Every structure is written in structure tokens, then in C-alpha cells.
Amino acid sequence: MKVQCRINNLNEIPDKETRNRLSECIHRQGPDEDLIVGEIYNVFALARWSDGGLRVYLHTIAESDHPYPYPLEMFEIVDATLPPNWLVNFEQQQGGLAVKLISFVEWHGDGQFYEKLVDGDEQAIAAYKLQRLNVQQRRAAVASSDVRQPLSTADEPLRHAAC
């Protein structure tokens, strides 16, 4: 899954209600210097936060051992293809089940995986680095094959469902 940064400043989100919702949990003024407008980023997880919004976890700081969460509203999904080892976690909400997390097996199976990454847990970091390596290898394989498969119309609703 890949997203392209459209804005890097919460104040530029056009919808006032969304801006207000995000400003309740993101206390940053001005542009987020880690995000480059126009840049395409690989997604390592997609999670629903307590404010009801979706966050994409992106590796935006090269020297870091973990990705950072960003509001999906700051991005456009440019490739909704999920790696074969990704799984979905659901949670019960008022009115039924909702998606809680979509990510690779290790993250999916451990509710504290992200916290372990941030805290420097060696096993979590090793699993995450392996995922990053797999993404780089897939990207290199696609670039070398120079063959692009068009999205089928069956994929189209998924591409826009998270927007």
C-alpha cells in the first residue's frame, strides 16, 4: 500500500470538523517537516484511532527504527494493494464491528507491537526491519520487470473506501 502526501500541515485540511477532531490529539503547529508534499510513502500499518480517524504508519525519518502515524486525510492512496502477509484486526463498536488495524503478521498479532518498536524492543525492530526490506525488494522487482498491471474494476471500491 502506498500513499502520496497532499498536505503536511493540519491547518491546510479543508474540512473544519476534521481539523478540529485532529487538533484534539495532534498538538503541532505549522507544517510537519518529516512529510514532503508530493512524496510517495509505503504504508506499514493502517489503524483506526480513538478519535475515529484513520492513521497510516510511514517511515519518514531515515535513522528511526519505527514508522510514525499520520492522519490519512493528509494523503491520497495511490496503491491500495496490500502485501500477502497482512491481516486485519476488528473491534466491536457501537453498531457492529469496525476495522481496528491492517498490518503485517507481527504487528497484527501483538497489540503492543508499536509501543515495543518505539521502546527499542530488539525483536520488534527486527520484524519491522524485515518488513521494510521486503517492501524494498518488491519495489526493486517491480521496477526491474517494468510491467504494470492495471487495477481491475473490482479493486476500485477498495481504493476509495478509505479516503
What are its keywords?
alpha+beta; 31% helix; disordered C terminus
Structure description:
This protein is of the alpha+beta class and 163 residues long. It has five helices and seven strands. It has one domain (2-145). Helices cover 31% and strands 27% of the residues. Strands 1, 2, 3, 4, 5, 6 and 7 form a seven-stranded antiparallel sheet that branches. The two termini are 13 Å apart. 20% of the residues are buried. Mean pLDDT is 86; it is low at 150-163.
Poorly predicted parts: 150-163
* H/E topology pattern: EHEEEEEEHHHH
Quaternary form: single chain
Helix content: 25-40%
Sheet having the most strands: 7 strands, antiparallel
Measured between the Cα atoms of the first and last residue, the distance is 13 Å
- Tally the helices: 5
The share of residues in extended strands comes to 25-35%
Given the C-alpha coordinates, what overall shape results? globular
Number of strands: 7
Radius of gyration (CA) equals 16 Å
Computed structural class: alpha+beta
The overall pLDDT average reads 86
Number of self-contained structural domains:
1
Short description:
This protein has helices at 16-25, 105-108, 113-119, 122-145, 156-161; strands at residues 2-5, 40-48, 54-58, 68-71, 75-79, 86-93, 96-104.
